[in-house]
Amino acid sequence: MGSKDTCDIYCYDEAKVKRLQDEIQKEDLTSVSRLFKALADENRTKIAYALCQNEELCVCDLANIIGSTVATASHHLRTLHKQGLVKYRKEGKLAFYSLDDEHVKQLIVIALAHTKEVKINVRTS
Fold first, then answer.
1. Is residue 1 pLDDT above 80, yes or no?
2. Disulfide: which of 21, 63, 64, 115 matches 73 by Cβ 3.0-4.6 Å?
3. What is the 3-state secondary structure (H, E, C) of the chain?
4. What is the predicted pLDDT for the residue at 122?
5. 111 burial class (0-12, 13-18, 19+ CB within 10 angstroms)?
6. Residues whose CB falls within 8 Å of the CB of residue 95, separated by 6 or more in sequence, listed in order
7. Average pLDDT over residues 63-75
8. Given a cut of 70, is residue 69 above it in pLDDT?
9. Strands 86-91 and 57-58
10. CA 56 – CA 65 distance, rounded (Å)
């Protein structure tokens, strides 16, 4: 009594599995997992998106954009900074944040495109 989304019998390609296990060991997937975990919070994703739309924003701007206190925005920004997603510079008493590099923007753009595609596919199926 198998369901449609699982194998009806247990059988695997030992050579393929071993090759992929070796590949996985060579990559730093823990860091990739941490990166996605940092973006898994909706407010941090909103911050990253806002920084995709505007090269640089101060903490106060970002707090207002996500509808939070400056302390909460700062907490989210520290998390994003620790994961290498954003960088900051001080100008007097203000802290300005920007995306660390173009790859972060690409991640957000690709994720948005994927989400829109999934919504279209769900509606048409």
1. no
2. 63
3. CCCCCCCCCCCCCHHHHHHHHHHHHHCCHHHHHHHHHHHCCHHHHHHHHHHHHCCCEEHHHHHHHHCCCHHHHHHHHHHHHHCCCEEEEEECCEEEEEECCHHHHHHHHHHHHHHHHHHHHHHHC
4. 82
5. middle
6. 58, 59, 88, 89
7. 98
8. yes
9. unpaired
10. 13
Kindly list the domain boundaries of the chain, sorted by start residue: 29-124
Q: Are 59 and 17 in contact (CB under 8 A)?
A: no
Which amino acid does the sequence have at 71?
A
Radius of gyration of the chain from Cα atoms?
Answer: 20
% of the chain surpassing 90 pLDDT: 87
Q: How many Å separate Cα 69 from the centre of its chain?
A: 22
| Lookup: tokens for 43 | 């407010």
Cα distance between residue 36 and residue 12, in whole Å? 29
Strand partners, 87: 98
Distance, in Å, from the CA atom of 95 to the CA atom of 83, rounded to the nearest integer, reads 18
Domain 29-124 coded CATH 3.40.50.300: no
